[in-house]
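README, section 4: Worked example with a bound small molecule

Sections 1 through 3 covered apo chains. Here we extend the same pipeline to holo records, where the ligand is supplied as SMILES alongside the sequence. The molecule in this example is flavin-adenine dinucleotide. Nothing else about the input changes; the structure line simply encodes the ligand pose together with the chain.
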Amino acid sequence: MSPPVVLIIGCGIAGPVLGNFFKRKGYHPIVFEKVPELGDAGASLMLMSNGLKVLNLVGLADTLKAESTPLQELWDASDTGEVLGQSDLPKTFGDRYSQPAVGVRRTTVNLKLKNMLLDIGVDVREGWELVDIQENEDSVTAFFDGGRSVTGSFLIGCDGIRAASRSILLRNQGIAQGAPVYTGLTQTAGISVTPEPLRQISAMRNWYGDGIHVISYPVGPNHTSWAITQRETQEKEETWRPYRPDEILEQRQQLSFLLQGWDPVIRQMVNSSERIIKFGLFDRAELKPEQWHSKRCVLVGDAAHPTSPHLGQGANQALEDCFHLSHSMPFLEPGSEQYDEKLQVMGSSLWKNIFRPFAGKRQPRTSLLVRGARSQGDRRVVSGTEACRQRDSGIRAAYKDSTVLSAKFDDLLREPFQTL
Ligand SMILES: Cc1cc2nc3c(=O)[nH]c(=O)nc-3n(C[C@H](O)[C@H](O)[C@H](O)COP(=O)(O)OP(=O)(O)OC[C@H]3O[C@@H](n4cnc5c(N)ncnc54)[C@H](O)[C@@H]3O)c2cc1C
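The generated complex, written as structure tokens:
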């Protein structure tokens, strides 16, 4: 009997990792990606220990760490650079959680993930955009643009914040889904040669001003990724279009004006950035666990729990999802005694045995983080003297008690993720 075909929609973060896991567990995954050719994408990601542990299972943790410099320090300051708090806890992540945290360019991650799939012989189909799904008792057919369709045993929707898989699942449950929700915040981001004063220590740095927040972290031995968050009432398209070279000069001037009086190192970064991207930040209201799946389809990553980026956990949680979903599926070894028995799991009770427990486990944790990210974003850009004073004293207090800080990271990063 041929192995069950797993239709994986989306080749972002979760899709390729699931493709790897399912191939190694004896299934036949096919990864469909709407973009004609994956390549240049967004700015950067902070991969935390939890995400890196999962990436280690697909053999990518070491190569990603080699691209950058593991995080050593957290450093928060006022807009002028007056230190509010500092901690070298990230230095201990490697020992405490078996992997450090590391900032990487998003394009690097995406391409390494895609190539990892090609190396192990997984069928990756770029330029295939999911448009509909039809479910049967023990199979599912995915329909793509151009009238193409493929039938498999089950489908995993990893198609991100604007997931077609999610809209279709909800539509079939009688729920009309709107567009992602604009959080009221925009980010302007870039990658620059690391300014001299930031070269000593690999730190995640936050600067807090009135209505503006700036974050930076290294994404390589010589480069730093930065992002400026502001509240803007007019909704911004989540287009991810980098400014054209002729627009960059004007952007730099506007940002320099906006950041007058701020720590000069920020303006240095902005002015040396070769690429600047501006985008709106979106999330969505949480789904109930039973809405994460149907009988033959399940949502993973941003398709299930799209988040704004302020806790840096979206991709890391997508990776946790990948681990938990594939971990609960049986290994299939053709010719082995229990092969047929194990295939039964793929039958009509797949949703009861696998999808329902998966969603039940993952929904509470991810929903909490989505809500936490939203309020973290709001807190970062408060305006007015009193609101800023309260925020800054909260930050100072959070750094004072290192046991609380370390318990927070334990909760986030300690899960083992050791074997498939
Ligand atoms: C500015 C910003 C900064 C962030 N920083 C961090 C960070 O530091 N750390 C962190 O953990 N997370 C971060 N995140 C969140 C992170 O980017 C997402 O949570 C993560 O990418 C989700 O992975 P995914 O695989 O679910 O979806 P995605 O990575 O979005 O991948 C979805 C894929 O599906 C494809 N697709 C879409 N529709 C279809 C379709 N109909 N058919 C076929 N393919 C389709 C897309 O082209 C894409 O390739 C950040 C997000 C933003 C916006």
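What to look for in the output: Residues 5-180+284-413 form a domain with the FAD/NAD(P)-binding domain fold (CATH 3.50.50.60). The pocket of flavin-adenine dinucleotide is lined by residues 9-15, 32-35, 45-46, 51, 129-130, 158-160, 164, 187, 301-303, 307, 309, 312-316, 318 (CB under 6 Å).

Section 5 describes how to batch many such records.
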